[in-house]
Amino acid sequence: MTSELRISRRQLGVATGGILAGGLIAVGTRGHKSANPAASAVSPQSLGYTINVDQPGGAPGYVFFVSGTTAAHLGNVSRPCVLVVADKAGHVVWQRELPAGETAGNLRVQRYRGKPVLTWWQGRKQSGHGLGASYIADEHYNVISTLTPGGELSSDMHEFRLTPDGRALITSYPEVAADLTAIGGPRDGRVYNCTASVVDVATKQTLFQWDALSHIPISDSPARCTAGQTFDAYHMNSIAMDPAGNLVISMRALSTVFNVDYRTGAINWRLGGKRSTFALGDGVEFAYQHDVEMPDAATVTLFDNHYEGSRGTWAMVPCRPA
Prior knowledge:
4-stranded antiparallel sheet, disordered N terminus
């Protein structure tokens, strides 16, 4: 095994947890590998390009990624999907091979009930989103909870965030009938009605749900539908909580961040896109953003893709009322 992990650009973008300072969980050893070590994602396959994560002076810790056919891969499932935790020398600490036909993403460490846990999304990919469930594994890598938003909703791959008080924030992409004439589509069209759910992890009870179609007109979307395809008007890709406990929701297709009242579901404010509540500072702009958070009441952080195909940059956006 070499000191370089070969990770494809597509895999790195979707499935990573990156490098976690201080390592994962002390109990984790190579004895917790999957039953098929030959499926290890760190073998030097032709996965795109090489990233040397073992640079002198680099942060300590493990590397988290998903090999094989991941949720970002748009082709047919061709290789087993494997969740991998490896050290910086390329040695596998833990891995989990998924059943045939399933993919995964969002592998990372979070905290539940004061302890570190490993979390990920697992299921089937469909048109840029996922249909599956959200998983939590304990310090022994045993799965202790599998969550969905309840009812007919499945968990999407974009967001599975645990809160300090034991709740989970989960995205879903239910497909519903909709009149698309406002954006040049058919009256009997179909749209992905992106939904944000808050679920109590211990009881699996859904505490709150908010769907885009009930609050945002389809005409707000700059995208145009394609005949015969379900319209992805919103593309919800992250959910977080602000310091007041309201939801901060990113809608990539709208290039807009929404702050939603957790009690009423009303939109408190919008940042970016059409009808922004705020005027951005001089030279500040963003589009097709990911990973929106509010570390304090006056700051929004996000990954700025800026436009389709862009590499993107991280941005901190100070705002003032328009």
